[in-house]
Amino acid sequence: MASLARLSRKTLATAITSHRHLLRRALATEAVAKVTESPPPALPITESPDRVKWDYRGQRMIIPLGQWLPKIAVDAYVAPNVVLAGQVNVLDGSSVWNGAVLRGDLNKITVGFCSNVQEKCVVHAAWSSPTGLPAETMIERFVTVGAYCLLRSCTIEPECIIGQHSILMEGSLVETHSILEAGSVLAPGRRIPSGELWAGNPARFVRKLTHEETLEIPKLAVAVNDLSKEYFNEYLPYSTVYLEVEKMMKSHGISI
After folding, report:
1. Is residue 221 within 8 Å of 139, Cβ to Cβ?
2. Does residue 91 lie within any of the structural domains?
3. What family is it from (predicted)?
4. For the domain that residue 72 is a member of, what is the CATH number?
5. Is residue 11 part of a domain?
6. 23 within domain boundaries
7. Number of domains observed in the structure of the chain
8. Which of 47, 164, 229, 246 has the fewest CB atoms in 10 Å of its CB?
C-alpha cells in the first residue's frame, strides 16, 4: 500500500507540472499574438461647428472688464501688441504705439483727438485723487506722450508734450501749451501752468515757452498722426468688402 501511495503522488506531481508548462506556453502564445496583430483602424474625428476658437497667443489687445469695453475710433491706430482694459476710450485720429498698456480697471482713461501714446507707456487711473480733481486719466487733443512714460490719474490739457521716461502722479495737471522734459517726475497734485517748460525730479519750472515753440507742439502731434496712417494702411480692413473693391478696380484697369 505504501509503494502504491508513493506511485500515486509521483504521478500526480508529474501531471501538475505538465499542466503548468502547457498553461504557461498557451499564455505566452496568446500574448505574442496580441502584440503582433494590427490595431483597429482609428475613427475619423470631425470638429464640431460649435467648438470655441480659443486664442492661444497669450495676449489679447482688448480686455472687457464687467460692463466696460474699450472703445477705439475707426480711424485711430492701435498697435497689435497694445493692451486696452476696461474704461478706455481712444478717440479719432489718435494712436497708441507698440507695447503700451492702458488699464482702465479702476477709472476712465481717454486719449483725445490726434494725440499719441508712444511705445511702452503705462497709463492707469486710481479710484480717487488726493487733490479732489477727477481721478480719471485725461489726455486731451494734440498731446504727445513720449515712450516709456507712466501716467496715473493725471490730466493733460490740449497741445502739450510729455518727454519720454516721464512720470505723472495722481492729481497732477499739465495745462495747455506746456512741455515736460524727458525723465521728469511730476509729484502728486502738482500743476504745470500754461506756456511753461518744466524738468527734473521732482519737476520744477525752467522757463517760459516762446510763441514759436507753442506753435510747434500741435505740429508734432499731427506728424505722428500722419506716420500712424502709414502703419494703419498695412493692416487689412475689417470684413471682406475690400475684396469686392479690389475686383472692381481691376475690372476698370485701375492699379492696386
Report:
1. no
2. yes
3. Belongs to the gamma-class carbonic anhydrase family.
4. 2.160.10.10
5. no
6. no
7. 1
8. 47
The residue segments making up the domain with residue 216 are 62-234
Rounded to two decimals, what is the model's pTM?
0.68
Distance CA 248, CA 246 (A): 5
Check pLDDT > 60 for residue 172.
Answer: yes
Q: Do the domain assignments include residue 45? A: no
Q: For position 56, what pLDDT does the model report?
A: 43
Supply 71's cell numbers: 472703445
User: pLDDT tens across 189-217, in order?
Assistant: 899 999 999 999 999 999 999 999 999 99
Q: What is the residue-wise DSSP string for the chain?
A: -HHHHHHHHHHHHHHHHHHHHHHHHHHHHHHHHHHHSPPPPPPPP---TT------SS--SEE-BTTB--EE-TT-EE-TT-EEEEEEEE-TT-EE-TT-EEEEEEEEEEE-TT-EE-TT-EEE--S--TTSS--SEEE-TT-EE-TT-EEES-EE-SS-EE-TT-EE-TT-EE-SS-EE-TT-EE-TT-EE-TTEEEETTTTEEEEEPPHHHHHHHHHHHHHHHHHHHHHHTTSPPSSSHHHHHHHHHHHTT---
C-alpha span between 10 and 8 (Å, rounded) = 5
